[in-house]
Amino acid sequence: MTGGPAFELRGLTKRFGSVTAVDGVSVEVARGEVVALLGPNGAGKSTTVDMLLGLTKPDAGAVTVEGGSPREAVDRGLVGAMMQNGALLGDVTVGEIVDLVVSTHANPLPASEVIARAGLENLVKRRCGKLSGGERQRVRFALALAGDPKLLVLDEPTAAMDVDGRRAFWAAIREYAAGGRTVLFATHYLAEAEDYADRVVLMRHGVVVADGPVAEVRAAVSGRVLKAAVPGATETDLARLAGVTSVQLRAGRAELACADSDAAVRALLAEFPQAADIEITALGLEEAFLALTAEEAAA
Ligand SMILES: Nc1ncnc2c1ncn2[C@@H]1O[C@H](COP(=O)(O)OP(=O)(O)OP(=O)(O)O)[C@@H](O)[C@H]1O
């Protein structure tokens, strides 16, 4: 397998009655990328994932996975998926279900490696029906890994995991991706996208509203905040400054959202030489996300 993207979505559209769940989504992901698909409830993330996996047929557009159709890629064992509600048989043990799934693949990882990568060593003899929510997620992760896929697709993988479980899970994902394999995960957790993804695809109302490295997505919403103590200045005064898009005064400190923070700091000091304790920071992904959502609410 050489060249070419890990997968490509071209103009993907899916409607459910009058709802357009996914509306012309185009995304190309290179091999070895770890991509977060981020968005609020109903943004179209799960529908996009379902089309990527060939579980739902698009109304328009096309999906290519490892150079073929999603079905072909799945049949060839190139794709491993961890879905939100994948059922597990209650009566079989973790060891048995891993063995079973490993045995269905043409070129699987050894069962012992699957168990180790998913951190299930101490749960091998446990019946699946007796697992906690977070443990069940780890078993689903193990089953997704069993076929040694080139592409891992994870729909809200850490939803039921505690803090330690999440940390261990992401360490396992990074290790997996380090070998040049590709990961796409859908999430609500902005911090996870920020900490663990190389790239963020931000969706809202079925449309991709930002796509790029985490730092670029932050910058796309033009994002810097200038904070300063500005005695005697009102919100109206500050809102007039060049480069400033919005103002908040909190406990005697001004917070200026800036499209151009260089212009803003010059204008601030020219107009208010008494301004002190000046601090300029980039927006976090959370703020970027909120800004994009707010833009839409205002539109
Ligand atoms: N089978 C379906 N029938 C009708 N409408 C659907 C169906 N599946 C999804 N939708 C609608 O399509 C839109 C996108 O849903 P989707 O589940 O893809 O969003 P999401 O981003 O995954 O949301 P969440 O984060 O809540 O899981 C929503 O408005 C949803 O109600």
Please tell me about this protein's structure.
The model has no long low-confidence stretch (mean pLDDT 87). This protein folds into two domains: 7-213, P-loop containing nucleotide triphosphate hydrolases (Rossmann fold, 3-Layer(aba) Sandwich), CATH 3.40.50.300; 222-282, Alpha-Beta Plaits (2-Layer Sandwich), CATH 3.30.70. The strands form three sheets. It has a six-stranded mixed sheet with strand order 5-6-7-3-8-9, sandwiched between helices. Strands 11-12-10-13 form a four-stranded antiparallel sheet. The radius of gyration is 23 Å and the shape is elongated. Helix 8 (214-220) runs parallel beside helix 11 (285-298). It has helices at residues 45-52, 70-75, 94-103, 111-117, 133-145, 163-178, 190-196, 214-220, 235-239, 261-271, 285-298, and strands at 7-16, 19-29, 34-38, 60-65, 79-82, 151-155, 182-187, 199-204, 207-213, 224-229, 244-250, 253-258, 276-282. The chain is an alpha/beta fold. It is built from eleven helices and 13 strands. The two termini are 45 Å apart. Bound molecules: adenosine-5'-triphosphate (ATP). Residues 16, 19, 21, 39, 41-47 line the site of adenosine-5'-triphosphate.
Primary descriptors:
single chain, 299 residues, alpha/beta, Rossmann fold, Alpha-Beta Plaits, 2 domains, 6-stranded mixed sheet, 4-stranded antiparallel sheet, 11 helices, 29% strand, binds adenosine-5'-triphosphate
